Amino acid sequence: MISCQDFITELGNLLDDDVAVEVRESLQAHLEHCQSCQVLYDSTRKTLRIVTESGSFEYPDPIAEPLVTKIMDRIKGGCEVPKSVE
Amino acid sequence: MGFLSENNDPDALASLSSLKKHYGFIPRIFREQLARPDLVASEAKLIEGSLFNKGALTRLQKELILLTVSAANANNYFPAVHAQTLQFVGVKLEQSVAVTTDHRAAGLTETDVALLDFAQRLTLQGNKFSAEDVEELRAKGYSDEQILEAVLMVGLTFLLNTVQFGLGTEPDFKPRLNISQKEVNPEPASERRILERPLTDESVSDDPDLEIVIRVKNGETDAFEELVRRHGRRVYRSLVGILGNAEEAEDALQDCFLKAFQHLPAFEGRARFSTWLVRIAINTGIQRLRGRKDFESLDEEVDDFKPRRIQAWDENPEESYSREELKRIVEQEVMKLPAKYRVALMLRDLEELSTEQAANALGLTIPGLKARVLRGRLMLRESMVAYFAKGAAGVKA
Predict the structure, then answer these.
(1) In which element (H, E) is residue A30 found?
(2) I need a labelling partner for B23 at 20 to 30 A (CA). Which of B77, B79, B151, B288 fits?
(3) In which band, very low, low, confident or very high, does the pLDDT at A30 lie, cut at 50, 70 and 90?
């Protein structure tokens, strides 16, 4: 039987659907009898869904145009080279 | 302008989508044939079947034939278009130019040189072609199927070249190579055997930004503006997530696009332009983060984290909030995470990079990255309990 700590260690892989069949089975067996881990798994899964679907960190429309203009002005004005890409 | 008018009506161009897929844009020569959409569609099909699809010969061998035969026909148009397109499957412009100028001095393998000798002879002396020529190719290990494809490819190139001469199509790009008949080396295969890395044979990218990228690379700086408009939002999102600060993200956004513009000549299309750009954004963001006075190291060990607030959530807890509210909650809570967890979570869960890509971007091992992502997710979950646990709904951000 795996412990709650073992379950938490594997939780990331479980959410990413990146666990071997036998590991998944033991995680599921743990979930069946552990209410806390069930809640943890369910709420973390929902957190990710909310984050992914929230459309967060879009830039506000009013700043979009001035930024495009600034960038193009700097490019056409022979801008100084920022540090390397890598 | 060419001798016939060019049609850029989107409905008419839709019939040429297969060409767009392979070339990344629709070369002018096909837009000039839309007075007979049925014929140009058949032509596109023929090109796809004979050239772009993999057959007994590789796509690249067929492309090499096209370059060699066009050169022998003194056609500038097709080598220009294909040399550009070939860059996106990893063939450098100079390599295409070298094949067009003299395929025997282009660093190709012995078997490829034999194939191109064959194509060139068929082009220049078709009426003297004999079983011996075919036998020579067989001796190099080519199958009948491959020989047939080579002959058809020579024929297809003649068709394309002739259509271009007939329509007077002007180049889509400023031509980098100008071929005249006498520059083509008429000597038989020499002993020169230069082996280079085999040319890759991937399918041409269907990158929707390809056409603009090529225009910018050819000196049309203004076209870059469209790339900024298309990708600004995504780049901003990566940066604000990494930096945790909207104002700094605006500065970094400018730096990122300037770097992209300056490094565009080195962009070879091995990845989509958008992927390449986001990689620059991530590097820009991480560089700034590491340069901060109050920088919290991204490299520190991750300690164990024990979830504390274990309360059940509703089935669809987000339904209690408007879209705007949800957006604000997520932004506010993600920003509160320590940088090392926030960045890892952003790359995996908002940018949807693979574990390997995210680990690479941050210079972490895969277990190291995974530990940070999990920690970020668990901390974020913890702070979300206040909004989404049963009975918590209605608490506003």
Answers:
(1) helix A21-33
(2) B151
(3) very high
Pairwise CA distance, residues B329 & B384, whole Å: 8
Q: How confident is the model over B108-136, as pLDDT tens digits?
A: 888 999 999 999 999 988 888 889 999 99
* CB-CB contact of B29 with B166 (8 Å): no
Residue whose entry in the numeric block shows the structure tokens 């979830």: B307
Contact B154, B118 (CB under 8 A): no
Instruction: Check if the beta carbon of residue B239 is closer than 8 Å to that of residue B253.
Output: yes
The alpha carbons of chain A give a radius of gyration, in whole angstroms, of 23
Amino acid at B349: D
The conformation of residue B338, written as its DSSP 8-state character, comes to -
At residue B389, the 3 state secondary structure works out as strand
Instruction: Check if the beta carbon of residue B120 is closer than 8 Å to that of residue B72.
Output: yes
Spatial CA neighbour of B257 closest among A10, A79, A37, A1: A79
CB contact under 8 A, A12 and B389: no
Query: CA B244, CA B231: separation in Å to the nearest integer?
Result: 19
Mean pLDDT of chain B: 82
Determine the distance in angstroms separating the CA of A42 from the nearest CA of chain B, rounded to an integer.
8
Cβ pairs bridging A and B (under 8 Å): 141
Dist CA A17 CA B246 (whole Å): 33
Alpha-carbon distance A10 to B86, whole Å? Answer: 44
Testing the interface with A: which of B273, B322, B349, B360 to mutate, by most A Cβ within 10 A?
A: B349
Q: Does A31 touch chain B (CB under 8 A)?
A: no
* CA separation for the pair A57, A42 (Å, rounded): 25
- CA dist B306 and A4 (Å) reads 10
Integer Rg of chain B from CA: 28
Helix runs in chain B, H state only = 10-14, 17-23, 28-31, 37-47, 59-72, 77-87, 93-101, 110-124, 131-139, 144-167, 210-217, 224-243, 246-263, 273-290, 323-336, 339-345, 355-362, 366-388
- Nearest by CB to residue A85, choosing from B241, B259, B326, is B259
C-alpha distances in Å from residue B144, one per residue of A32, B52, B59, B69, B168: 64, 20, 17, 20, 36
pLDDT digits (tens, 9 = 90+) for B224-243: 999 999 888 888 888 888 88
- The pLDDT tens digits for B85-100 are 787 777 877 888 888 8
